[in-house]
Protein: Glutamine synthetase
Amino acid sequence: MTKPRDFETLKAMVKTGEIDTVLVCMVDMQGRLMGKRFHAVNFVETSFKETHCCNYLLATDLEMATPEGFASTSWQSGYGDYIMAPDLRTIRPVPWLEGTALVLCDVLDHHTHQPVPHSPRAILKKQIARLEALGFEAKMATELEFFLFANSLDEIRENGFRDLKPISGYNEDYNIFQTTKEEGIMRPIRNHLFDAGVPIENSKGEAEAGQEELNIRYSPALDCADYHSIAKHAIKEISWQNGHAATFLPKWHKDRVGSSSHVHQSLWKNGEAAFYDKDAKHGMSQLMSHYMAGLIKYAPDYTYFLAPYVNSYKRFAKGTFAPTKTVWSVDNRTAGFRLCGEDSKGVRVECRIGGSDLNPYLAQAVMLAAGIKGIEDALELAPATTGDVYEDAKAADIPQTLRDATELLRNSAFLRDALGDEVVDHYTRSAEWEQEEFDRVVTDWEIARGFEKA
Ligand code: ADP
Structure:
């Protein structure tokens, strides 16, 4: 089918009946696509200008609860509306659904028509604008790791999420034979996303049974976050269409490797790689060293945005390729930050802290803010670490629990300055709520440990 990548083509395809449905979506705090399915005729005639959603969509949790304590939204203020304003630049086909296109929206205040400050897209756009004011453009790539399971989501849910059976029987890292067996799911994921305008590079097996990785070509930061959200959605949906389950839970079993989302970052000026200096060590420009120094210094402050749930912290274990330290290293996978593409125009920093459950808009925004701070303050980059970073006693730890990350977020003068108090308070409340919900639960582990023996 031809591809509606702009409004004019979409209108033409609606006229011929090739497109009958438009998914009009915002991205919520958890990074999910939320919105409505429009009849395409209605969308191209009127709703392309705006539609509306309940404002609790940006003050809820994974279960769609209505927690108290958010300044923006409450029972007292009556849960009003937000405007969803389609960004027509993001129009694309959804080739895995018949006759369907998709558009992403910015979320605006109903009365002022200004961006809602705690909307993930608005948070990222603000940091991109700050970077532009300094004369730079950020290009990013977020890797998507996830697990595929033999059974369907419904079967797994009905079975209480027990006895989970990964789709393959052994570690499939780079394994072509094993991943051939999964092509029934992975090939449509790659090809449909590619046809939807998401520049897929490749997929590969990862270092655990049933674990996959999808790589998307690096792109301007906002596009990168849009691609990530759409790809994550497609992975879940196409797996579901095939009768299987995909999960982005960072740690679904204590004895299995976790899933991450590494974030590759570089800055550009007038189309030139601003991180590259051919005469400098590693080809790393002074600008890049300041950016990285900011990333490293403020990593504890922003870890919450790379690991937003209780489960996210179960991934940070020694000897698993998941980092525990805020240090950098050249091509060493045990450090929180890895310099990649040394001595080339592709020189970049990869942050390895984030879990597969991160919201790409928020993760990129806070890392850009940290990099900008590093540039503004001309922070000096400590020498690279070498060897097994897990055993480096001098290296700073990233927060080990959601509780610790929440306090670092709440008290971060840097984040309050960069994102605004309103945004920090909003996400601090979200983090607190997540912990409160967990603390209410009596887990299987406690019962098995103490039932007889306590
Ligand atoms: P690896 O060997 O770690 O898989 P790749 O070469 O496949 O590394 O690249 C990993 C990711 O880094 C890809 O998504 C790629 O598009 C991205 N990438 C490459 N160059 C840059 C760059 N200059 N800035 C940001 N990301 C980049």
